[in-house]
Design goal:
Low-confidence stretches: none
Largest sheet: none
Order of helices and strands: HHHHHHHHH
Number of helices: 9
Strand content: under 5%
Mean pLDDT: 93
Number of domains: 1
Length: 222
Amino acid sequence: MHAPATPTFSATTVHTMLSRGVWALPVYAVLLGLSTLTQQPDYATDFEAYAAYVTTNTFLVSHLVASIAGAAVGIVGVVSLAAVLIGSGARSGRILIGAVLSIAGNVANTALFGVAAFAQPAIGRAYRAGEEYAVALNADVYGPELIATAVTGLALFIAGAVLLGTATARVDGLRASGITYAASLTIFVVANFTIPILQPVMAAALTIATLAMARRLNQGGS
């Protein structure tokens, strides 16, 4: 009795599958934009508004879908982009480092999204129920440990975006897309702490850039 044949994949098939995976990047960009359409009130200056905001269904869905699931979609896109570029003969060093840093940054950032999705609503509900400890609990949650995680994750995320974007820009036909990728993700992160209204704009720029990347790489040339 013969053993069942083991399915095999040709290099062309693998390349095609990975190329299609690059389409995850514009999906990720759209999710980033959706996650920034509203802004969280500052708990240091208006805890009541903050508590009301973080107890809405919109806040929870935004973090579960746009932020946490979005990070997973972004990782799929980054891995696919890196693999396609390296498989097409692009210089691998900067691409690999950029992909690794991007993935590490996204994974670290999901810790923040998880706290936001589950801890913040609980704190908000406690505050609105008249529990005096809610403000102190919020300060404890957003203490040095979480801040250090945030700084590390965002630094890795920016470094990965810059390296992967600039490496992509060296590929024929992807110069503008690669530069926009690096710049838009960097500004997106910085704007969160400076000019939040820029975040949806940068997400839109990222969407356009990654759509161009996916379209180019799915036409068979790089």
